[in-house]
């Protein structure tokens, strides 16, 4: 397996230390990939104290309701009939005057485990607070994972659950759901409950993740790549009528990635199929489709396709969309990609 990203490797390392009861007095969790931040906070909440000790020694707070002086006073209290007191501040990015916590970090109480979880925000670790938290080994930054990094993480996650997953099933999950790790994990939990086989395959994803064999983003991409006008419009109309809120917006990255792979094939004349499949990061079985699409799209066609996908993204986010629905914008995009170039 490829080298894990720092986000994943550092998460696994921190997780192992917590499970081994090697606690830091302060945890500063921050970054854009909120799944890992929540996972560490939840692990501490659920594993440090036995349930019988939590009512007196475990406090869950939210940043908006926290006054920094009260938090410091709370952190300096000793636990009641327990080795530790746990304080978890969720949405810590909302704490006002957070820099005043430095007075506590200079001399934290060893029996207190203070967790500050900054969801979606990156802290400047060059600050005094950042350096102090890092000194105790409890600073963790979760950078947003790219698609290929999510593909590295999912097998590791399922291995911890005693399960495994086919590479094509991972590809399908990421393409269907986008790089939305919390959403992917919700669907994985559904798969773990519904699929009794140890090995999860594409058929399991198709059956359990809101997937329609005829009308889905994969079939739409294929129809566009093959320039099958009637099928592409039929799929777009069907998906437009049944799409859930935000579903079409998630398709933008799928379409951009699909045409990005077509462009890569066009830029690899003379390369072997093995080299192409490796560069595209796809199963060789699917390579033929990309090779056909690469012949179907001229440079002008490719430029138009990328422009239409960019417009799709902007309009779905409210830029110059007028009164059009998400579905109508998708149909307009499909028509724009497939329309014949105007002759001058």
Total beta strand runs: 7
Quote the distance from N terminus to C terminus.
Answer: 52 Å
Overall mean pLDDT: 88
The third-level CATH topology of the largest domain is Rossmann fold
In terms of topology, how is this protein built?
Layout: H1 6-19, E1 26-31, H2 34-47, H3 51-57, E2 58-62, H4 68-75, E3 85-90, H5 102-105, E4 112-119, H6 128-135, E5 139-142, H7 147-160, E6 164-165, H8 167-177, H9 181-194, E7 199-200, H10 202-208, H11 217-225, H12 229-242, H13 247-266, H14 273-280, H15 287-296, H16 299-316, H17 326-338
Parallel strand pairs: 1-4, 1-5, 2-3, 3-4, 6-7
Helix pairs in contact: 1-2, 7-8, 8-10, 11-12, 12-17, 13-15, 13-16, 16-17
Question: What labels would you give this structure?
Answer:
Zinc Finger, Delta Prime, domain 3; alpha/beta; 5-stranded parallel β-sheet; 3 domains; Rossmann fold; Helicase, Ruva Protein, domain 3; elongated; 7 strands; 344 residues
Short description:
This protein is an alpha/beta fold and 344 residues long. It has 17 helices and seven strands. The chain has a five-stranded parallel sheet.
Structure description:
The strands form 2 sheets. This protein has a 5-stranded parallel sheet. β3, α5 and β4 form a beta-alpha-beta unit. The protein has 17 helices and 7 strands. The protein has 3 domains: 137 residues, Rossmann fold (3-Layer(aba) Sandwich), CATH 3.40.50; 62 residues, Helicase, Ruva Protein, domain 3 (Orthogonal Bundle); 122 residues, Zinc Finger, Delta Prime, domain 3. The mean pLDDT is 88. α7 crosses α8, α11 packs antiparallel against α12 and α13 runs antiparallel to α16. It has 344 residues and is an alpha/beta fold.
């Amino acid at each position: 397996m490829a080298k894990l990203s720092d986000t994943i490797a550092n998460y696994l390392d921190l997780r192992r230390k917590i499970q081994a009861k090697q606690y830091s007095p302060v945890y500063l969790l921050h970054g854009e990939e909120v799944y890992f931040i929540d996972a560490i906070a939840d692990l501490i909440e659920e594993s440090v104290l036995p349930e019988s000790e939590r009512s007196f020694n475990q406090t869950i707070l939210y940043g908006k309701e926290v006054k920094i002086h009260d938090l410091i006073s709370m952190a300096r209290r000793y636990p009641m009939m327990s080795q530790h007191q746990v304080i978890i501040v969720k949405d810590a990015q909302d704490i006002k005057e957070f820099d005043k916590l430095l007075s506590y970090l200079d001399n934290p109480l060893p029996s207190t485990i203070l967790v500050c979880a900054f969801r979606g925000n990156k802290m400047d670790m060059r600050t005094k607070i950042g350096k102090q938290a890092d000194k105790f080994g409890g600073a963790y930054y979760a950078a947003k994972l790219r698609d290929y990094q999510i593909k590295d993480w999912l097998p590791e996650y399922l291995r911890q659950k005693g399960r495994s997953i086919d590479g094509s099933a991972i590809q399908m999950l990421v393409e269907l759901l986008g790089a939305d790790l919390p959403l992917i994990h919700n669907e994985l939990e559904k798969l773990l409950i519904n699929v009794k086989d140890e090995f999860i395959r594409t058929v399991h994803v198709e059956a359990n993740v809101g997937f329609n064999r005829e009308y889905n983003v994969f079939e739409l991409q294929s129809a566009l790549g093959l320039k099958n006008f009637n099928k592409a419009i039929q799929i777009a109309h069907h998906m437009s009528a049944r799409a859930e809120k935000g579903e079409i917006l998630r398709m933008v990255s799928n379409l951009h990635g699909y045409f990005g792979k077509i462009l890569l094939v066009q830029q690899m004349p003379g390369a072997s199929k093995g080299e192409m499949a490796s560069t595209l990061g796809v199963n060789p079985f699917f390579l033929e489709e990309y090779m056909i699409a690469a012949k179907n799209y001229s440079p002008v066609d490719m430029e138009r396709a990328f422009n239409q996908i960019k417009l799709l993204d902007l309009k779905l986010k409210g830029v110059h969309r007028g009164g059009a629905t998400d579905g109508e914008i998708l149909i307009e995009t499909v028509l724009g990609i497939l329309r014949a170039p105007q002759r001058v």
